[in-house]
């Protein structure tokens, strides 16, 4: 991580401290600074704009914006979960979890602990002419997770 990125991360954390908002990611490239923030239940455009103004002013004198543009945004709906607060925010939702062993797990994220998540998986199969539903719970440590994405299903209710 370079000095500019570390400085921006520090500024973002300081600005969001004491609010319900939390930082998700700061990415710095030669021509762009991209900051992602979130909040439960949802981040607003006004909150993104406020952080944008703050960062623009705070870094103006350092020449950061001479060759870079600044973007402050919420994470997209199809973006993977990155920080613990996002997992907590999405507890109760259907998710697809990829683990280091290459397996994909789908289920309802029932519990978010410090060290991992608990999924409630539902398997539906036929037994004769009847449909049978079987539910199992499994705990997946964060250390085994490579990606978690929320599955949006208009028929699913928390």
Task: Note down, in words, how this protein is organized.
The chain is an alpha+beta fold. Helices cover 23% and strands 41% of the residues. The strands form two sheets. Strands 7-6-5-4-8 form a five-stranded antiparallel sheet. It has a three-stranded mixed sheet with strand order 1-2-3, with helices on one face. β1 and β2 form a beta hairpin. The longest helix is centred in the first third of the chain and has 16 residues, at 45-60. The radius of gyration is 20 Å and the shape is elongated.
Order of helices and strands: HEEHEHEEEEE
Coarse structural class: alpha+beta
Beginning-to-end CA distance, first to last residue: 39 Å
Count of helices? 3
Largest sheet: 5 strands, antiparallel
Please tell me the overall pLDDT: 93
Helicity range = 10-25%
The strand count comes to 8
Largest sheet strand order = 7-6-5-4-8
Characteristics:
single chain; 158 residues; alpha+beta; 5-stranded antiparallel β-sheet; 3-stranded mixed β-sheet; 3 helices
Question: How is the secondary structure organized here?
Answer:
Blueprint: H1 3-16, E1 22-29, E2 32-38, H2 45-60, E3 69-73, H3 84-89, E4 94-99, E5 104-112, E6 116-127, E7 130-141, E8 145-150
Parallel strand pairs: 2-3
Antiparallel strand pairs: 1-2, 4-5, 4-8, 5-6, 6-7
Helix pairs in contact: 1-2
In short:
The chain has 158 residues and is α+β, with helices and mostly antiparallel strands.
